[in-house]
């Protein structure tokens, strides 16, 4: 007698994005177009604010508001850079490398951000170590985007886990945080550009992750639900023998 496994579909949502290349290209063109349209007005705002600051030096109210204008312009510039990063990416340059070594390097560079929120990361590399055809610089960006999201979502003082393992065709890695579930309305389109529930963000972080993994011939999956936290799963095919 066999017992059917419980259906977890009601408790945990999963989102895997494999959109057609034409749809991704359209999204990239839109993102780049928005960025280019914003860039010149923001530059003009910054120039005008700086000129006003130079001309009016003895009014604290004006100085306070000029500072506010410049801070908001800086935030907009960050959004523009993020949109251009998604919309006009460089071509991947693939070479054999260990994807878990990239994880180690990213974790080292994010040590300060992790310590500031008392977060511990448990990284279990693939055993035996994997060799995949990757673009180290772009995969670093994908991991950094994913890790930044996990840091924002994880409860202060909690643990993050990164567990990598071999697959039949290559390598897999799962990044997990125990934060609150992603709202279904956001999860449904999590890998689309301009989708975010965080004010002040362009909403292209996971879209860039998806684009980079796709360019590597891999996939990215997002799972989130009550009491189970959120997990991003990356897969990359193994490097081909010459």
In spatial order, strands of the major sheet run: 1-7-8-6-5-3
How widely separated are the two ends?
Answer: 49 Å
Question: Which stretches are poorly predicted, pLDDT < 50 over at least 5 residues?
Answer: 1-19
Q: Helicity range of the residues?
A: 40-55%
Q: Element order, helices and strands?
A: EHHEHHEEHEEHHEE
What Rg do the Cα atoms give?
21 Å
Shape call: globular
- The chain-level mean pLDDT equals 82
Q: Tally the beta strands.
A: 8
Task: Quickly name the level 1 CATH class of the largest domain.
Answer: Alpha Beta
Major sheet description: 6 strands, mixed
Any idea of the CATH topology of the largest domain?
A: Heat Shock Protein 90
